[in-house]
Amino acid sequence: MGVEGIGARVARKEDKRFLMGQGKYTDDMSVPGMCYAAFVRSPHAHAKIRSIDISAAADMPGVIGVLNGKQMLDDGIGNLICGWMIHSKDGSPMKMGAWRPIAHDTVRYVGDAVAVVVADTMGEARDAAEAVVVEYDVLPAVTDAVKALEAGQPQLHPEAPGNLIYDWEIGDGAATDAAIAAAAHVTEMKIVNNRLAPNPMEPRAALGIYDSAEDHYTCYTTSQNPHVARLVMSAFYNVAPENKLRVIAPDVGGGFGSKIYIYPEEIVCLWASKRTGVPVKWTSDRTEAFLTDAHGRDHVSTVKMAFDADNRVTALKVDTIANFGAYMSLFSSAVPTYLYATLLSGQYNFPAIHANVRAVYTNTVAVDAYRGAGRPEATYLLERTMETAARELGVSPAELRRINFIRSFPHQTPVIMNYDAGDYEASLEAAMKAADWAGFPARKAEAAGRGMKRGIGMSCYIEACGIAPSAAVGSLGAGVGLWESAEVRVNAVGTVEVLTGSHSHGQGHETTFAQLVADRFGVPLDSVSIVHGDTDKVQMGMGTYGSRSGAVGMSAVVKALDKVETKAKKIAAHLMEADESDIVIENGALKVAGTDKSVPWFQMALAAYTAHNLPSGMEPGLKEGAFYDPANFTFPAGCYIAEVEVDPDTGKTKIVQFVAADDFGNIINPMIVEGQVHGGIAQGIGQALLEGVHYDPETGQLLTASYMDYTMPRADDLPSFQVSHQITPCPNNPLGIKGCGEAGAIGSPPALMNAITDAIGNNDLTMPATPQKVWAAARATAN
Amino acid sequence: MAKVAMTVNGRKVSKECEGRTLLVHFLRDTLSLTGTHIGCDTSQCGACVVHMDGKAVKSCSMLAAQAAGAEILTIEGLAANGELHPVQAAFKANHGLQCGFCTPGMVMTAVDMINRYGAKLNEQTVRENLEGNICRCTGYHNIVKAILAAAEDMGAAGRQAAE
Amino acid sequence: MYATNYHRASSVADAVKLQSSSDEAKYVSGGMTLIPTMKQRLAAPSDLVDLRHIAEMKGISVNGSRVRIGAATTHYEVSTSAELKAACPAISHLAAHIGDPHVRHMGTIGGSIANNDPAADYPSAMLALGATIVTNAREVAAEDFFTGLFETALEAGEIVVAVTFDAPAKAGYAKFPNPASRYAMAGVFVAKAGNGSVRVAVTGAGSNGVFRHAGLEAALAANWSADAASGVDVDASDLLSDLHGSAEYRANLVKVMAKRAVAAA
């Protein structure tokens, strides 16, 4: 490792502009003549639109246009799509209702767009939006997925009778049932995974610019994957052909999944720009974000975990109902199936698993992937159940896990996944040591002396990321391949530009991707630039989500670097009249091994472009591209331990320590990896202790529509974290890396809930474990 | 429309704006100082924090007119001649930012905090004084670390200057 | 936000004149509640009259046991005043925990009590300290000032210019914040006057805003100790109930916060 190469703790190249207020986010963009869009949104969770009267609004100051969904339909703008086909167990395809960018007939959640106003200023647009008069015939609404499946409930889409989108299964039901029937012990639980709002700090925004002379559109948007946005807007929404549509995602202020999807607003801004003849910008406010950004989680499950007389797991049976909201968002169908049920084996050697998943429409905003996406739900279910089983069996939680760990690799689980490498014991040991697990009883006794209830809990998670092998996901229903692209351009002076289809929204790609180049060619980090986020600059890419930018995006860079290296060596060999196979690259120079002959990197680069003296037949220039399609998923895993003190008087939980021991394979920049873990843990703690989306079950009104009611984790809710890494390199990609973006959010919720229930001696507690709930649960045991 | 005059980052400005214009919009839209951000609409996230007459305030929760005549310092005015302020430098050294969106508010809050507490800051005080700033990326771990490092750095610098 | 016109008052008389020139004018001080409310289009004053720069409404004075705090004094100034910390540390403590540092730099005591948010901190202190609310027209006992949710005895155009109270022999404040908004879910201010009388005021929990709790007052008058509060029955029937706390939970919090306030006094 060099000081700037792979494994170095390099400070981030992108930081200076953010620290000086010079970052450029979508809402910072401004173009001449730009006007502002404000949406008229449904105040009802379910209603027929009877009429829309725009006359008052159209006459208001500054108003350029008031547009509706019918016009959008007339202009041929397509329905929003879901990109992953799931078939029910009876073989029928998922039942997908139509999702219009602007509703013209029926609204299905509070916040569904019904019209858009374009005006000179944001204030004028909002004033006029308020003056649009919409008459509704209000229909009954249902927000709870379990209830929505019952007979007699409001029906959202004619295409999906009973609100059922699919009824899907995985695994061997008969073998699972037989093992449960023969088990020495079965632990049964009902598990609720609470609904969350992702809340990147930058609200979504879009700026649509139509150039009538060129019949060309430009879209600035807060996207994790601008290329996918262009593809979908072009191929499915009929906004414009790809060569007439440029999508730019400049600096993106966090996403956590919620900025993967192509939402109605960016389509509307582009379309409205052509309709009105002015550039149109829309910026979400936070309340609009709560109403319209895709939410995450929202599962209700029952689980049976079976053990033999030696406390070995023999089977797992799961039944899950997943709330999809009012419409099927882009990846929604994959989340509770191939990103969830395929991880139900956890770190354990289950001989049999069966899971059944029903996906359900409700009158709530769409639910899709949010940091972890399916894997937190699987981990929470498994690790709460494993902990409960340990309590029931009278075995220590660590011991029960140890007995059941998978210990040889590769390991084929009963639910598709083939784990390639791991050492679960190592992470467990590291975490227990860091947490001083052995010293807990003394700490508990000391806390009791202060009137505090102290508890400890662990969670051993596994996830699948580095998504994903294209042929494999294609066979499972994915509408796209999940490879990544890269291009490495060496300039004539030896500086390097890396073009990547990954796109950072906080992960530090401008630093870590550059570290690969510095490591390979020995050039200074400052001489490497990363280009991303613009479809005019980078031809195609699949974007950043599912902890894929390291394992997939960087692997593509490595492939391109290989090609550049090969050509560079050929040029250097030619210049030094040496054999290509004798050339080594060291400290920014190409050398003939075992001699003092060398050519500086920049001189080789110059030679490539002057082309005065290249090997016979070689093309000038030094620029190589690559597409990398992963051979398998990657499988980060680890062990998290939470220790808490509960104040029985108020029910308030204080996290006294939080330990994370993760195996992410090889690490490019430990500082950045630790930062990803910290952030993930904070979101996991948020889910366990603080956060929860609540809709009024009768009216479908969103009750948690601002930070006044939705509890975001703040600095004083959290401790500092103890983070460590155990490394088993991933055998399936050139860098041996697995991915680290989601682990924190996956592993932490069950650790906390196990700790709190341990502290209060009552296992009947749902997330978020708010003071009120914990107080009530603690009292229930005390009485 | 009314004329509003104030000093922003040491420069006198006088601009027409609507009475309802918030200070944050005046900074972002009228003065093109887009470093100050808007992350919520209920005055909780602190992405909009600037200094008014030396004290941290939320620029989304006051009208531009309320700041008339005041000295405003925004994130753009913190670094001198391209040299990062010690708090900015500490955020970089300690990886106290990821997506960067909350960062301007965090940095302005940190400077205000250090102004008020100096070297007396400890982890608990820092966490309590971040009540008005929400970050979704970092889990605050490295923000707290950066602020403590900056406070120590600036305290040390202050002591050196005094000696 | 709807359109509005801003006016800066230079004196109380100037403020009254500016306010009276429009039917829909409102006073603004720190604006920490009013401006966010206007942003959400839940308030639409045609004109805003800014009181923050009126010199006669600023400042803290302690004369013997008599304390006067100008209405335009910020929470930050109250929390850091050495004079107040000596005379009534409980109110400094309360001010130091309102909102966040940025809010404390802008928000004022006058704005807080004139708004009488049911979850605001200051009204409980005013009530428990038996404070007098001084307006440009009269003096009103805190008891008579807070009349309900966001309701006060203020007449149209009337301005709170200061609050006065006698420094208590002992006083303490403890609150349990709403996990999301950080407003008080239950805040209890306990005060024992120089003559031994005890007043206990509760904010954040009452369905009709800030209120005094007779049971806690009687128990603490008889025995000024945290334990004494434990035996008091706090009736949940008049308490707020919402997503974050049922009335029953709030009743528990009132008792627990009372104990902690006494312990801190």
Helix/strand layout:
The complex is a heterotrimer of chains A (783), B (163) and C (265).
Chain A: H1 15-19, E1 35-41, E2 47-53, H2 55-58, E3 63-68, H3 69-74, E4 106-107, E5 113-119, H4 122-131, E6 133-138, H5 145-148, E7 164-171, H6 173-181, E8 185-193, E9 205-211, E10 216-221, H7 226-235, E11 245-248, H8 264-276, E12 280-283, H9 286-292, E13 299-307, E14 313-323, E15 353-360, H10 375-393, H11 397-404, E16 411-412, E17 418-419, H12 424-434, H13 440-449, E18 453-462, H14 470-475, E19 484-490, E20 496-500, H15 509-521, E21 528-531, H16 549-575, E22 583-586, E23 589-592, E24 598-600, H17 601-610, E25 623-628, E26 637-647, E27 652-663, H18 670-690, E28 722-725, H19 743-760, H20 771-782
Parallel strand pairs in A: 1-12, 10-11, 14-15, 20-21, 27-28
Antiparallel strand pairs in A: 1-5, 2-4, 2-6, 3-5, 7-15, 8-13, 9-10, 9-12, 13-14, 16-17, 18-26, 19-20, 19-25, 22-23, 23-24, 26-27
Chain B: E1 2-8, E2 11-17, H1 23-30, E3 49-52, E4 55-58, E5 71-73, H2 86-93, H3 103-117, H4 123-129, H5 141-162
Parallel strand pairs in B: 1-5
Antiparallel strand pairs in B: 1-2, 3-4, 3-5
Chain C: E1 5-8, H1 12-20, E2 25-28, H2 34-39, E3 47-50, E4 60-63, E5 66-70, H3 75-80, H4 82-87, H5 89-96, H6 101-106, H7 109-115, H8 122-128, E6 132-135, E7 139-141, H9 142-145, E8 146-148, E9 151-152, E10 160-166, E11 170-177, E12 184-192, E13 198-203, E14 211-212, H10 214-222, H11 226-230, H12 247-264
Parallel strand pairs in C: 1-3, 2-3
Antiparallel strand pairs in C: 4-5, 5-10, 6-7, 6-10, 8-9, 11-12, 12-13, 13-14
